[in-house]
Amino acid sequence: MKEVLSGNEAIARGAYEAGVTFAAAYPGTPSTEILETISARYPGEIYSQWSPNEKTALECGVGASMAGARTLVSMKHVGVNVAADPLFTAVYTGVKGGLVLISADDPNLHSSQNEQDNRNFAKFAKLPMLEPSDSQEAKDFLKAALDISEAFDTPVLFRTTTRISHSKSVVELGEREEYPSTGEIDRNTRKYVMLPGHARQRHPLIEERLKKIAQLAETSPLNRVEWGDTHIGIISSGITYQYAKEALPGASFLKLGMTWPLPAKLIRDFASKVKKLIVVEELDPFLEEQIRLLGVRVDHGKDLFPILGELEPSCVTALLTGVEPKKKAPAEGLPVRPPVLCPGCSHRGVFAVLKKLKVFVSGDIGCYTLAALPPLESMHTCLCMGASITMAHGISKVIGESEDYKNKVVAVIGDSTFFHSGVTGLIDLIWNRGNAVVAIQDNRITAMTGGQENPGSGHSVSGVESPAIDLEKLVIALGVKPENVRVVSAYDLKALEAVFREELEKPEPSAVITKDPCVLQYRVKGEPMRVLAEKCTGCKRCIGVGCIAVSMMQKGEETFAAIDPNFCTGCTVCAQVCKAEAIIR
Ligand code: SF4
Ligand code: SF4
After folding, report:
1. Are 231 and 276 in contact (CB under 8 A)?
2. CB neighbour class for 199 (10 Å; exposed up to 12, middle 13-18, buried from 19)
3. CB 135, CB 6: distance < 8 Å
4. Fewest CB within 10 angstroms: 127, 309, 410, 420, which?
């Protein structure tokens, strides 16, 4: 039977067919749908869970593998940075049930804070890596990855990019093979307890293991040569293989499905039979450098293809053939539309108040990061998941106390991000006697990645009820004084301002918690507001809160605000900033 599947759906299907029984992930574009598909389609066969972060997901996965389960752990590229600590040592402990770590990379930063090439992790952490080029391979390679994992006692890195994760192609489905756990845990301390003495003994095994996998790579069907015109030989992998094949279908190709360790002999052999060797790859010169290190002459690689951003078929065609593809000229004169918070979003009021107070806002990863953009422009830093609190701590330690709010720091973080890695940041701040106001914007969901459950939402990935972590009790337990923990509505700007003013005056940490649910996820919609044109002075204060439901209209000489009732949720934030009281329900 055949089905049209996205790469992520195909990976989930591959996990099902390959007998995976344990899957864990932290949501992050472009990886999110892998676990969502597993949980929705294979709930009886595969246990699945969202973990609070990528490190805990991988650690759970290593435990499941130790207990004999075939295991899948998925995350986006920056998530692997978080999971790197257990990853580098899991390569030492090895596995029992096959363990595959999916890294979904995001060339061109469609929805990420950096652009990194996680192929480098395979070399750095010394583990084999597979890269599929379409959905069929995404499914088939997953099974191959689990087989390699078990045969060589190693986790396997499975790297995709956004185009593989999200584009769809036809997949031939197969039957599920069962790999039930024996129900026994190995008590093998030399293998699983990484004391220095044990780890020292494991390291040479890893080097030997890589040599053996490199031998497998020479003959594995994961790597294949497609002979054509030998004037041009192309070495490529992943989605860029498809682009190169489209551009030069008659050329010779060495298509690599296993991109670490590399098949040195196969590469040398291929290179010796083609006149001109071109390496086509996105982002870093990962393959090119390794091929050059083999002493193989590469005629073109990164001298031709950009090191930044995502390649696209037309660009690869143009660079390989010199023929500019016919492109439709982009429409001109279109207004620039920066991403904005949703109408009625509970984050808006908090940022309107923080802007008014002129505090320095140390931000984090989530929908609220959009508050850095015009017109709100009230977030001043955003580094990585959980860094809002720790950066606020570092900043406030250096700048010290100040009389005005200009040099005071508020850390803003969402509930999911707080559970991900904000908790340890707050522990750092409390322990080291820092002083910052931590605003936890609890919208009861992981909103930015499409509304996944989190430890505070009260449900697991499969919708089963689970204990919701109580944020107030948690921050008190971490050391914030109970009188400094304030719960306030994100829609009550007066109350928010008063609470922030009070807490900013205190010489000790505070937590301001807002608990208004995500309007999109919980379908919050109240009676829309409207503008009394005769009262409106055209001051544009309401525009400053950055709601797409509000716009300015011109009638003759008069300029006044208008509200689109289709978008407005009636949250009243724009009304509260209007000094003319021109916005009413
Ligand atoms: S804030 Fe009030 S007065 Fe100013 S433009 Fe908006 S509706 Fe008109
Ligand atoms: S009340 Fe104002 S800010 Fe809230 S959704 Fe409606 S137009 Fe937007």
Report:
1. yes
2. middle
3. yes
4. 309
* pLDDT, position 394: 94
Q: Is 529 in the pocket of ligand 2 (CB under 6 A)?
A: yes
**To which H or E segment does residue 237 belong?**
strand 229-237
| 417 phi and psi angles, rounded to 5 deg | -70, -35
Q: C-alpha distances in angstroms, 339 versus 372, 375, 547?
A: 11, 11, 11
Angle at CA of residue 292, ends 310 and 285, nearest 5°? 15
Run of H or E including 278: strand 276-280
| Ligand 2 centroid, distance to 548 Cα (angstroms) | 8
**Rounded CA Rg of the chain:** 27
Distance CA 373, CA 370 (A): 6
Tokens (6 digits) for 528: 């829309």
- Residue 425 has a pLDDT of 97
Beta bridge partners of 72: 23, 100
Give CA–CA dist 143/15, Å, rounded.
7
Residues in the chain predicted with pLDDT less than 50, given as ranges, are: none
Question: Residue 583 CA: which ligand 1 atom is closest?
Answer: 7
Amino acid at 489: S
Nearest Cα residue to atom 6 of ligand 2: 568
CA distances to 261, 386, 389, 473, 515 from 485, rounded to whole Å, are 52, 19, 15, 9, 13
pLDDT the model gives residue 180: 87
d(CA 123, CA 168) in angstroms, rounded, equals: 29
